[in-house]
Amino acid sequence: MAGSFDVFRKYQRSLLVAVAILAMLAFFVLPPFLQMGGGGPGGDPVAARWSGGEISEGQLERSVAMRSVVNRFLVEAAVAAGRDPARLPLFPEAEEAVVRTLLVNEEARANGLVVSDTAINDFLAQWTNNLVRPEQLAEIIAGLRLGPTAVSQHALFEALRAELTGRNMLFMFQTGFSGDPPGWRWDYYKRLEQKAAVEVVAVPVESVVADVPAPTEATLRSFFDRYKDDLPDPRSDAPGFRKPRRAKYEFFVAKREAFEAAASKDVTDEEITAFYEKNKATMFRAAAEEKTPPAETAPKADAPAADPAKPETPASPGKDAKDSKDAQPANEKQGNNELRTKVQAVAFKQPAAEAKLETKPETKPASTEKPVADSKPATEPAKPAADAEPTSETALEFEPLEKVKDRIREQLAREKANARIDAIFSAIAGDIGRYAEDMALWKARGGIATPPPAPDLDKIAEKQALEAGRSELVTAEQAVASGGLGQSFEFVADPGSRFGIRQQNWLDSIFGQNTMPLRPVTSRDVAGNRYLSWKTDDQAEFTPTFADARDDVEFSWRIVEGRGIARKKAEELAARARTEKQSFEMLLGGSTALKATKIEPFTWLATGANGQPVLSQPEGVQMAGEEFMEAVFGLEPEQTTVAFNEPRTVCYAIRLTAFEPPVAELREKFLEAKSDPRRIGAVAQGEFSRSFGDWLTGLEKRYGLTWVRQPRR
Description:
This protein is α+β, with helices and mostly antiparallel strands. The protein has five domains: 12-38; 46-175, no CATH class; 195-230 and 547-660, no CATH class; 246-258 and 407-539; 285-397, no CATH class. 48% of the residues lie in helices and 13% in strands. It has 26 helices and 17 strands. The strands form six sheets. Strands 12-5-16-15 form a four-stranded antiparallel β-sheet. Strands 7-6-11-10 form a four-stranded antiparallel β-sheet. A three-stranded antiparallel β-sheet has the order 2-1-17. The two termini are 67 Å apart.
């Protein structure tokens, strides 16, 4: 009787083939079926969930890929219609944006908003300006792929329907802000023009963290997991435990005043004289008032108004002396016109011939009038090329050397100082370059020997009259906040720019992408001080472990939990001031724990660097935000309230003392001026953007959106 092993030996080849086929099926076919299971051991884990729905990792990956396919289709269709693909409003392909669209679509369905097939075709016709035929669109769709799989027209249209549904819902929200009601214009005008004077008492949340009960380890770990992948933002009310990129650098400073003072001692009188003679025609011409003799500023009483014997300026072709003469009084009130007229008068006169010119008729190269016989000059006028040479030094009047001597000395000292700094920095840069090469060789050999010695910064600084500096590992924000080097810049060649040069910030040279360590960088600040710096260490951003970040996690958790305690203290103080009708200063008396501060009048909005309205930052308030401004400008004089600053690290008890100007006067100005529509429009746009962001945030809270892990960008 044959055993089971005998059967296997008889059919071993066929069985091995069958096992191989099953293994292949398990490898290629089983994972998709497991992903369709929606979780569970070995299934497709959930990426995010909300009330009434969730999305798994596989579904999210497919949704992001499908949005990319939709964008690709829209780009190719637009290109076929002759549109610029760089200017197309495509759908963002980040995971967070995809999930947000799902929530917006939920809201659209709740409001009965649907997108029909006709609406999709109308959108495509508008997108392509009716310039792409249906067969062309079909050809584009035939070339689309989702991984190795072709995308059907039905799948593409359904994906496009979902995108348009979300877009139309957002458009409906936007139309709620259309128009410009008078009440809104008045509100925006007040934000720009009305000033508030307040008295505040700051209650830092940090001052009450000791009153917060100690958290459990599980609480801290959960808190850390929630924010571990977020970078810290000083203006955000949410913590971030991911460590930002940091760099360490060394530098030299060449102080402008010190180098120019030293160079000034080396400037000789011969150099000053030579500079004056070389540049006096372009830099040291006398002022127009000094070059015009008083006798020529007005015609003589016994001379006719059109006397051709007294030309002030050479006549233009087709004009006589009277035209030139009569034009002068008007020129006296036309800025640079007066200067140009009088400079020409001096430049075209020969000093030795001035007496003759008073009895000599005007030379008219292109005049159509014939000269009167009695006024014909004794000699024929010379050709214009030889008549008066405008570049002749004898035809110009200059400021005396003694008057401009100090100015020239400063100029030459500045040039000598810059030349010396250039030479010093060039030599030091060479030393740093050689040190970088030695370090590279040492590392390439395994770093087993003694590392090459670094240049002695202090010794170099002492010898070259420089100041040396070193930083710790700092973020870009910390470097800028330190001033000096952190805010310096350099002008670099840029053939593509309008003037062939552009300003490059030092920050980009140290913290920019692909910046190398030990590469010398020159820069300068607005005061004229010059810098030579190089990066010595570069630490990329990273997420620390919970153990390493635990102290920061607990402190941040206490800040979040302590906000309620800080607000309660501020509310108690505001209530006392309201009840007792006293200022905060009188209530606190000599208290050292809290201090009342009077804030100078400030507006809700100020004009930013680009001319756009930005939130004011009154001195004495740390990072004032919208909550603070809404609280202040919602008060009446002598009323009190409380509000947090933008990062919610300080709660302020606020007492409004006065509005400037009073509301009645401001309203009259508003009605008289009819307001500036551009300024009002800029405020309205900013308000819409903020409200739009608040609406999306509120939507996520209402649906209870929760990410199992942080969304990838």
